[in-house]
């Protein structure tokens, strides 16, 4: 039903998970644990999927905050949770909070989900980074906002990078590679080149960003699974197109 970062599982004070497509009640190409609320799936099925996750991971079904993602770099400071149908105010690609009990969700179907936790300052974050978010530094924005809003210290922050499309499958042309390389000068260390096509490792690039922000390497963990390769476990935008559900990542402070 969901995958965990072993490092995050060992930390006191939080619950988290990277959801898969398994363990829910949705049907058709939403089978079965779709958590996307605006993809055409039945409302009662999506609700039940969140209830199942709430019971299993351990958060309150009516104390949730969701992103309305646009591949931008806006971070929303969350002070209050709601149901999954509580209207989301403004588009954003990352959520942070210092309030216990609010489950922060981001959605993915190839993009990289990243969870953040500063145990000392008592705050968490959830970030969605596709290649655009990786290029525009949404993850840096989230870390800096945790520092500004809650007095977090980068060296105290733990980060868990979740399942996303891997270097095996993430094919881009020169234009995208070039955009990324202007932000990540060391991109060639984590990129394969085949003819005119480039295969950058988005998870590694986001890890590079975390290191640049001042996080300690031993506090960053990565789930190495590829969403496009692991058909039984995940939806993949590159593989499935628009006929698919959404998985995601969730974190909540106890
Ligand atoms: Zn792959």
Give an account of the 3D structure.
The chain is an alpha+beta fold. The chain has a single domain, classed as 4-Layer Sandwich (CNF1/YfiH-like putative cysteine hydrolases). It contains 7 helices and 13 strands. A 6-stranded mixed beta sheet has the order 4-5-8-7-9-12. β10 and β11 (197-200) form a beta hairpin. The longest helix has 16 residues, at 43-58. It is globular and about 50 Å long. The chain starts with a strand and ends with a strand. Zinc ion binds next to loops.
Average pLDDT metric? 97
**The CATH C-level class name:** Alpha Beta
Radius of gyration: 17 Å
Low-confidence stretches: none
Number of strands: 13
Discrete helix count: 7
State the distance separating the first and last CA atoms.
21 Å
Short note summarizing the structure:
The chain is α+β, with helices and mostly antiparallel strands and about 250 residues long.
Which features characterize this protein?
single chain; 254 residues; alpha+beta; CNF1/YfiH-like putative cysteine hydrolases; six-stranded mixed sheet; five-stranded mixed sheet; 26% helix; 24% strand; globular; binds zinc ion
């Amino acid at each position: 039903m969901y995958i965990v970062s072993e490092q995050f599982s060992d930390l006191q004070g939080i619950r988290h998970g990277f959801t898969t497509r398994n363990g829910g009640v949705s049907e058709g190409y939403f089978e079965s644990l779709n958590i996307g609320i605006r993809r055409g799936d039945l409302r009662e099925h999506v609700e039940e999927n969140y209830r199942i996750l709430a019971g299993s991971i351990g958060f309150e079904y009516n104390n949730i905050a969701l992103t309305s993602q646009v591949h931008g770099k806006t971070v929303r400071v969350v002070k209050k949770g709601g149901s999954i149908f509580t209207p989301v105010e403004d588009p954003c690609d990352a959520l942070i909070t210092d309030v216990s009990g609010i489950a922060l969700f981001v959605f993915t179907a190839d993009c990289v989900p990243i969870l953040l936790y500063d145990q000392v300052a008592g705050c968490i974050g959830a970030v969605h980074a596709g290649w655009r978010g990786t290029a525009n530094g949404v993850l840096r924005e989230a870390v800096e906002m945790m520092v500004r809003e809650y007095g977090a210290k980068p060296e105290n922050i733990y980060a868990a990078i979740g399942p996303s499309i891997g270097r095996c499958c993430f094919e881009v042309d020169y234009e995208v590679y070039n955009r990324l390389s202007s932000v990540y000068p060391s991109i060639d260390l984590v990129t394969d080149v085949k003819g005119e096509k480039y295969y950058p490792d988005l998870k590694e690039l986001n890890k590079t960003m975390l290191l640049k922000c001042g996080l300690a390497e031993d506090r960053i963990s990565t789930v190495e699974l590829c969403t496009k390769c692991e058909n039984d476990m995940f939806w993949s935008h590159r593989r499935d197109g628009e006929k698919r559900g959404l998985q995601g990542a969730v974190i909540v402070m106890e």
